Amino acid sequence: MNIKEKVKNLPLTPGVYLMKDQKGTVIYVGKAKSLKKRVQTYFQNSAAHPQKIKKMVANINDFHVLHTDTEFEAFLLECKLIKELQPLFNKKMKSHLPYSYIAIKMDGPFRKISIASEISEAGGTIYFGPYTSMIYVKKAIENLKEYFKINCLHPLKGSPCLNYTLGKCNGLCLGGSRVEEYNRIVEKFISFLQGFDTEILDEIEKKMNQASEEYQFEEAAKYRNYMKSLSILLYKENMIQFTGGNKNIVVVERINDRTLKVFLIKGHNVIFSKQYHPEKFRHLSEKIKDTILYFFQENDKRKPVVIGKEELDEAQIIYSYLNGGNARFIVIPEEWLDDSESEKLDESINQLLNA
Q: Is 318 left (phi over 0), alpha (psi -120 to 50) or beta?
């Protein structure tokens, strides 16, 4: 069977495809909501493909597919296989920007914002991240400093720096009360990254809308760019805090009218998944409850989850999936795993299954 005939026989279901060269080496791994539709694209309209895709297709001699019940599982499997196999064209097509952290040094007379590639064990500094793109982080910090006018070139020098004369510095270089003002702005940024205060975005959006209403479109575009870069930071930080928050997550996704799938998630890991056919289990909620208690009550599952560089891809897949609207989920507090709170657990499971 030639490769195009093989493509025609693929199902319209989720899964992962592994492209192979003449030696049988896997040169690319991809995921699909519909295997047939996705794999077909590589062998159709080839003239419109980017050069990297053309080069990969020219090296494909065969492919293999792995079926999954859901697109979510295809995402996770793709991530796992890319890390294990390190296919040539996944490396070429993925922009390998260095991971980075926002580091804010809290000791000293003023808060210092910088970008770090690693977390130092030395005290006095708080970190946010990791972020997959140093370019986005750098741009967000530049926009923050520009918007709040805190881009000081010579802090505490005692005389105005060039940026102060240009209106880009609040006067940190002069010292005095300007230092307190500067620190308040940085602490507001910290609160923003911690998810406690989104006033920064609200304020920028208000100014953007006002500039647009006054036909100051260049000014409005500038505020829009501020919002975009800061929103990316907030999304990433929310994702890390959510998946790293040691939460007990139960997910139900309906595969079809007669089948649903249950996932138990802890941090960046799916620790249990299984298909269920509700008509075959009269006491499905009880069965799921037993499974929840069995997996989430294990001592090693109650340890804090740390999301670092190695766990970031899986954490992002899980966070995007839970916020994508394709599945229903509940977060189970630790106290619900005790006998005294079992009624709350029962109620939440029933609501999840019947929603």
A: alpha
Per 3-state DSSP, what percentage of the chain is helix, strand, and coil (rounded to 5)? 50, 20, 30
Q: What is the pTM of this model?
A: 0.71
Task: Determine contact, residues 13/1, Cβ cutoff 8 Å.
Answer: no
- Residue 271 corresponds to which tokens in the numbers above? 């620790």
Closest CA to 352 of 257, 249, 274, 232: 249
Mean pLDDT by 10 residues, the chain (355 residues): 84 94 94 93 78 88 94 93 89 63 92 89 86 86 92 93 94 93 94 86 92 91 91 82 80 87 89 85 82 79 67 84 83 80 83 81
Structural domain spans, the chain: 3-93, 100-243, 248-354
Q: How far apart are CA 198 and CA 193, in angstroms?
A: 9
DSSP helix/strand/coil, 186: helix
3-state SS class at 19: strand
Q: How long, in residues, is the chain?
A: 355
Q: Which residues pair with residue 108 across a beta bridge? A: none
C-alpha to C-alpha distances, 288 to 68, 178, 271, 307, nearest whole angstrom: 21, 58, 14, 27
Quote the DSSP letter at residue 104: E
Which CATH number applies to 3-93: 3.40.50.300, 3.40.1440.10, 3.60.40.10, 3.40.1160.10?
Answer: 3.40.1440.10
Cα Dmax for the chain: 79
